[in-house]
User: Which sequence fits this backbone?
RNA sequence: CGGAGUGUCGUAUACCGGUAGUACGUAUGGUUUGGGACCAUAUUGACUGGGUUCGAUUCCCAGCACUCCGACCA
């Protein structure tokens, strides 16, 4: 893409009411636009990052046999009443409205109940199980207080996966395979080293749930970690019995701030039982269904990445989620750049080409702010030196590369 | 939801009970062209409503919006 055609612009200053680093950088660089408190639009650059993250998550979900769907944002009240979660006193983040005929509807803050209700129609025999379904959905939550930029909004994109099974062992096996799958996701987006599977408060059925907590100062949670033993415990469940169970002592743990980027829940059979969702076993008897629920906050993950991979000049996207692979910058007019741009496009490289007639300083500053991992500069000077200058965003020094070697080097 | 604070061009800021400045941006022209370059000209603003006052952007009240701390976050 040519940068002259990109409608967004960078800005030097962040809005003063935007305190969190992720939102400051993402707004300055033109990835997102704040619509209101806790509500952000995703602009061309931001959307590319979102889609990159989704692609990784989608690949991992498909690898564990997830089937992708999209549920609705408007939800009927009855389906939530069956589990007692329509009540505002039980769930305090509801947005609700009415149809013209006064029928009450809710805006989806979660999809466990609707998706389970839908599954009743399709899953009627033990032979139909297990089933794993997932979606990328915009969740709407009436948070009392939005904060931390895109880390905790009223509208955000989440990947949610649900597993239905009649066999407990197989259910638990899948639960564990999701753990591994999620860690793959966090590794692939560059956060593997600082993301921990964390013991957290459980539901009605299990003692613990597992959260995926990324160690970052931008987080909202506190966890206690032991890197050697690869143990992490959410502050909210830390007590002597937990320590004993996990075989660690308090002085082996370090308290750190973290952001919850994923969360997996084992509901056992309780949720489906509550919703009167049963199936038939081999003997023709009514049998219960195990449910697991697994979430990754896609937009929050983007915020965590932007926050974590940044320096004083801007963002440093990991290649796997960067909006483009190459930032091609021409200084002054020359005939080579257009050709190189076309060559890169032809060989399938995602490239942002800064074809604007601006000073070098401005182009470099924009490039650093936007944070594309690889920068290629073409100028009179570089051509005299034998080609183009190539530099990674996280490196200080550039090196000269012959023009004919560019596509080979990048591929 | 409890507490605190802030609302001035698109963004960041200054001053002020009596004409609202500056920087960046934007537009036009010119000079530049390896780290946000320079010159000239132009452009754009007091959240909304009420009160006090001869006069309010400034003081007071209400509303709205935003931010922060806490609570909350299956």
Assistant:
């Amino acid at each position: 893409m040519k940068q002259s055609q990109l409608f967004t612009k960078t800005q030097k200053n962040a809005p003063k009411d935007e305190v969190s680093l992720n939102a400051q950088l993402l707004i300055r660089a033109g990835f997102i636009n704040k619509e209101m408190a806790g509500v952000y639009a995703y602009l061309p650059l931001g959307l590319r990052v979102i889609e990159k993250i989704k692609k990784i998550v989608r690949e991992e979900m498909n690898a564990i046999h997830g089937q992708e769907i999209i549920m609705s944002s408007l939800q009927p009240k009855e389906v939530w009443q069956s589990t007692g979660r329509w009540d505002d006193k039980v769930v305090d983040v509801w947005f609700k409205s009415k149809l013209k005929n006064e029928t009450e509807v809710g805006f989806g803050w979660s999809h466990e109940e609707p998706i389970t209700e839908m599954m009743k129609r399709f899953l009627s025999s033990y032979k139909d199980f297990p089933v794993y379904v997932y979606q990328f959905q915009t969740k709407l939550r009436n948070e009392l207080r939005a904060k931390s930029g895109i880390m905790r909004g009223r509208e955000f994109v989440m990947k949610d996966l649900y597993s239905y099974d009649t066999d407990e062992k197989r259910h638990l096996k899948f639960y564990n395979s999701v753990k591994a799958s999620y860690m793959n996701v966090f590794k692939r987006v560059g956060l593997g080293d600082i993301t921990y599977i964390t013991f957290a408060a459980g539901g009605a059925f299990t003692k613990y749930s597992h959260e995926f907590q990324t160690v970052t100062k931008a987080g909202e949670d506190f966890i206690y970690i032991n890197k050697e033993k690869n143990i992490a415990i959410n502050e909210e469940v830390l007590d002597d019995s937990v320590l004993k169970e996990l075989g660690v002592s308090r002085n082996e743990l370090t308290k750190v701030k973290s952001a919850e980027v994923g969360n997996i829940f084992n509901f056992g059979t309780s949720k489906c039982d509550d919703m009167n969702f049963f199936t038939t076993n081999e003997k023709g008897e009514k049998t219960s269904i195990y449910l697991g629920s697994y979430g990754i906050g896609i937009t929050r993950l983007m915020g965590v990445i932007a926050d974590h991979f940044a320096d004083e000049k801007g963002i440093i996207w990991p290649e796997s989620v960067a909006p483009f692979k190459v930032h091609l910058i021409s200084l002054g007019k020359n005939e080579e750049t257009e050709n190189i741009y076309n060559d890169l496009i032809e060989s399938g490289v995602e490239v942002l080409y800064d074809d604007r007639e601006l000073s070098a300083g401005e182009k470099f500053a924009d490039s650093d702010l936007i944070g594309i991992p690889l920068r290629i500069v073409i100028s009179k000077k570089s051509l005299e030196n034998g080609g183009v200058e190539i530099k990674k965003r996280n490196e200080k020094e550039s090196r000269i590369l012959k023009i004919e070697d560019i596509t080979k080097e990048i591929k």
Q: What stands out?
A: The two ends of chain A are 18 Å apart (CA to CA).
